Amino acid sequence: MTGPKFSIIHASYGRPYKAIAAMQSVFKNAVHPENIEYIFAFNEKDSTRFDFELHPVFDKCKQVVGSFKGSAPAWDAGAKESTGDILIQMQDDVVPPLNWDESLLNTLHSAMAEPPDSGVYFTRIPIFVAISDGYRLDGFCFMAIMNRAYYKMRGEFIHPGYMSVYSDDDVYFQAKKASSEGKAILIEARDIVWKHEHHYHNPDVELDSTYLRENSDVAYAHGQALFAKRCNEY
């Protein structure tokens, strides 16, 4: 099938089999998996990344490897290698819903007042889609979904100055500001749920070394200071 291509950009560290399971759920739950470009971003010091190469499904994926200080710069580096029409941020502990690709396309078409079979694919107007993580009800947006026009307008996918935390606050803050200035369309699609099975949401999920790394005091202090600085600069 021809149609918009999705670039799934997945930053992963230290838990290859959990990441592979997440990747498989993306392909399995898509209506048209042939339209998916999957990109893994790894830290060069993470030796577990070699475990991915033992899995046959990994042949479908691109790899980006670098000296990333955390997930935020890894996601941004992965986006630079993407070619898809719609970019989606992915994590080891996220589970997409059934038929997620069709659902997102219908949401985008509705926002642009285009029928799904119109052949016009919302490529020229910058769009950001805010979805739900299945847990939080405070308006927080935990993952970035944007079309390529939005990515080109912003010049970045996830701001690489962050280590991990607060990068999600930043990207959503930017989307709201761009929308308020008439530069982009922000779609609040909270009925779309990509379940974020994070330890802090679900205590049955193991608190592993990757969670401790990404949610360290250093990462929080750095992220909070950078977010405050960038908010004042906008």
Characterization of the model:
This protein has a five-stranded mixed sheet with strand order 3-2-1-4-7. A two-stranded antiparallel ribbon has the order 5-9. It is built from seven helices and nine strands. Helix 5 (167-180) runs parallel beside helix 7 (217-233). The protein is of the alpha/beta class and 234 residues long. It has a single domain, classed as Alpha-Beta Complex (Spore Coat Polysaccharide Biosynthesis Protein SpsA, Chain A). Strand 1, helix 1 (16-28) and strand 2 (36-43) form a beta-alpha-beta unit. The chain has helices at residues 16-28, 71-80, 100-111, 148-154, 167-180, 209-214, 217-233, and strands spanning 6-12, 36-43, 61-66, 86-90, 94-95, 127-132, 145-147, 185-193, 195-196.
